[in-house]
Structures are given as C-alpha cells and as structure tokens.
Amino acid sequence: MIEVILSEYYLFGFESLSSSFQNISSAIYFSSHIFLYLGISVFVLSHINKNFFKYSLIAYSWIFISESHHIIRSAFSLEYFPGSITSLLYIVLGYFYIAQLLKDLKSKKLFI
Hints:
Number of strands: 0
Number of domains: 2
Structural class: mainly alpha
Shape: flat
Strand content: under 5%
C-alpha cells in the first residue's frame, strides 16, 4: 500500500475506471464489490463441491503469475513501474504456493 501511495498509482487506476461510472467514488465501490462477491461465490461453491475447491486453488495461482507484468514492464522501459517492488514478494510467494499446490495435487491430498 505504501508503494501505491508514493507512486500515486491509485489515481491512474480509478480515474481511468471512473470513465465507465458516474464518479470515482462509484468506481471504487463497484470495483471493490465485484471482487468481494466473486470471492464469496468461490468460497460457497468450494464448500458445496469439494472438486471445485481444487480448481479454485489452481485458478488462485494466476494472481501470483499475473503480478510478473510489473517487473517485465520495468525491465523493458528501464524505469520504475508502480507495483514492481511488491510484485517481487508476490512472485516469491507464488513460487512456494505453486510448488506446494503441485506437490499436493501429485500426492492427491486435494479432494480429487
């Protein structure tokens, strides 16, 4: 969050998003609630169907992979791109997450 504040990335994200809404406040409200409802839906579905749990864990790993675009943009532009510092943490965590996920899938610890 400190990186977002210092780079003023929040202005870029919500100003461009607000063109689809009445104002920045409604853009923030709807964009945060979309992820909230999506998360609640995945939580409920993964408790109803145990097989869905495995697929939601696999889909969750995409978050770690997608964060690498910050570092790629910084490398190609040879300047700082907002989110580059925190994306390093996500990539390291993602490595361990995906390694453990693959290990659990191979040992069939996840409800297959």
